[in-house]
Design a protein that fits this description.
The protein is mostly beta strands and 169 residues long. The chain is built from 1 helix and 11 strands.
């Protein structure tokens, strides 16, 4: 994040804080869908914050106009533990009141993560995958669609040290 400029690829140092923004359109019939869940699963080199205060969930009529706060009692935010090649992530599900508030609107989730000691140095970088899973049918069928998008962050171990020769004065 560089002010108002959000990128899908960026560079960070190990232990740096990464600020992510995830925007999802919520269909007007969301209350009829059996499944509507948003997941964020970073690779093992990135850890999403454990503190709920590091997550803000807003909604609005346009992707870049999510200014109304969605209170925490309108959704459930569940941590996903790190395993295998995945780092610690989260899952967000709307309850019935939350679905009613955001139907036909956009949700914006802004949250903090950080590069950890398991980060891939250079090469292919460190991915963070967001998925939206929703019911294929409103008639009670159990088939789901999944939409996926990814942001990638890179880190490098460059270091430079300059010395002055104290003898050559």
């Amino acid at each position: 994040n560089g002010g108002d400029t959000w990128k899908t690829d960026e560079q960070y140092r190990l232990d740096d804080e990464i600020l992510y923004r995830l925007i999802v359109y919520v269909p007007s019939n969301v209350a009829e869908l059996g499944t509507f869940e948003i997941k964020d699963v970073p690779q093992v080199g990135i850890t999403d914050s454990e503190s709920s205060s590091d997550y803000t969930v807003n909604y609005g009529d346009a992707a870049n106009a999510c200014n109304a706060s969605l209170r925490a009692d309108n959704y459930t935010l569940t941590k996903i533990e790190a395993s295998g090649n995945n780092g610690q992530g989260f899952k967000l599900e709307l309850n019935s009141t939350g679905k009613g508030l955001v139907a036909g609107k956009f949700i914006q989730i802004v949250y903090k993560a950080h590069m950890n000691a398991n980060a891939v140095i250079a090469e292919i970088g460190n991915g963070n995958t967001a998925t939206l899973t929703y019911s294929k049918s409103i008639s009670g069928g159990n088939e789901n669609y999944t939409i996926t998008d990814e942001a990638r962050v890179y880190t490098y171990q460059f270091q430079i040290t300059k010395y002055k020769d104290s003898v050559a004065e």
